[in-house]
Structures are given as C-alpha cells and as structure tokens.
From TrEMBL:
It comes from Diversispora epigaea. InterPro entries: BACK (IPR011705). Residues 42-102 form the BACK domain. Gene3D superfamilies: 1.25.40.420. This is BACK domain-containing protein.
C-alpha cells in the first residue's frame, strides 16, 4: 500500500484503505502496532489514521505501553495529543511525551542534574510540535512541581510564567492559550501482560481482545460504506 501511495494512485489507495477496514478488521487488530506506525510514515492514509486513532484514544496502552513506543512517528504522536478524548491523565501524557523526546536523542545525559542549557534546547527542539498540545492548566499543583518544573527550560518563558501565575492566582488573566481539559470518560486498560500466551498476539493481551474487537465491529457498522453489498465491492475492485 505504501508503494501505491508513492505513485500517487489516490483512488486506488482509498479503495485499499476501505478494503482493509471493511474486510480485515481482525488482521488490523492483531497487527495494530505495525499498522499504526506504517500509516503515519506517510500522510495520505486519512481513513486508516482516523480509524486507528479512534481506537487508540480509547485504549492508549495499545501504543503508549509498547516496547517500541520510542519509534512512534512524530505525526502519530501529535495526532493523538490533539485529541480531546485521549483517555489518559494529562500528567501521564506529559511523561510519555518527555520519554519519547529523550528517546530521540540518545546522547542526552541520563541524570537530569547533569543537563546543560544545550541539552534542554535539544529536547525543546525535538518536542516543538508536541508541547503546544499539552493541557498545562488542567494539571494539579503537585503534578506541575513534580513533572513539569524539572523540564521548565523546554517551555517558552511566557508559558512557564503563566503556569506559575495560574496556580498562585487562578483568577488573574494570562497571555497563554488555555486548551480545554480532556474528557476522560473510561478507565484505562491495565498494562499488557509481559508474557502473553504463545498462540495469541504479542501486541495486546488476550484479556483486552474481546473489548477491542467489539469496538472495531461497532466502528465498522457506523461507516457509510459498511452496508454496501459484496457485489458492489467486487465491481468497485474491477475499476
């Protein structure tokens, strides 16, 4: 499919996306992490991006708790940070963003006390597309002190000044944009089993499979093309 996109066969690419979502839901579920990274290596698979992101925001552990989280494309991470319905506490999102940024720069010291001004600038540059989407003003004071303050040098000076002022005097106006709080409506799934059963997927645990499969099926039923007849789909593929 990536080869198809290289030649800008937009119509065929759309049909391939539709075919995957329509007939390969189980395969997408089993190979979710691989599929997710592949579609974000290019920018033209919007149907699959939306399809997968609708699942990830509900079950963020599928991506954030994987061993290869560090290899997640920046565009994929940013697309999730933009979502108001990402089902994860904001401080946890921040910690994952920091983890991802540091993993892109292996030369950074492991001890934060040893970081130089240049080290913080490196991390700030790496995360420049991610930082604007953190909901700083919906964190608690303890979360700001424990998680944000150690990395305050990667934030714009005005933003840090506004965060500081917000907790000292919440009613005073600030210059920074206050993004809406995320509406977390469900509990996050527990971390994946470290040693899944041999016959099952290495991407998700067996305990989560039924819930995710139901979510996939529900999503499919809501798609406008889902009720097309098999004959119509066969005719489409002959084009």
């Amino acid at each position: 499919m990536l080869a198809t996109n290289e030649f800008e066969f937009e119509e065929l690419t759309n049909k391939l996306e539709t075919h995957l979502i329509d007939t390969k839901a189980s395969w997408l579920k089993t190979h979710f992490s691989l599929v997710y990274r592949s579609i974000f290596s290019k920018n033209n698979f919007k149907k699959l991006e939306n399809f997968c992101n609708d699942i990830v925001v509900k079950y963020p552990n599928l991506i954030f708790d994987t061993d290869d989280f560090a290899s997640l494309p920046e565009s994929a991470l940013v697309s999730l940070l933009k979502r108001n319905d990402l089902q994860m506490k904001e401080v946890k999102i921040w910690n994952y963003v920091i983890k991802w940024g540091i993993s892109q720069n292996r030369a950074l010291p492991t001890n934060l006390d040893e970081w130089s001004k240049e080290n913080f600038l490196t991390l700030k540059t790496t995360l420049q597309q991610c930082l604007p989407h953190i909901r700083y003003f919906h964190l608690s004071g303890d979360e700001v002190l424990d998680s944000i303050r150690p990395y305050k040098k990667i934030l714009d000076k005005q933003l840090w000044k506004d965060i500081d002022q917000h907790f000292l005097s919440p009613e005073r106006p600030i210059k920074s944009i206050i993004l809406p709080a995320r509406f977390v409506s469900i509990e996050e799934l527990p971390p994946r089993t470290k040693e899944p059963k041999e016959h099952f997927s290495t991407i998700i645990s067996e305990d989560h499979a039924a819930e995710i499969y139901e979510d996939l099926e529900k999503h499919l039923r809501n798609l406008s093309w889902y009720n097309f007849s098999n004959e119509s789909r066969r005719n489409t593929w002959r084009l």
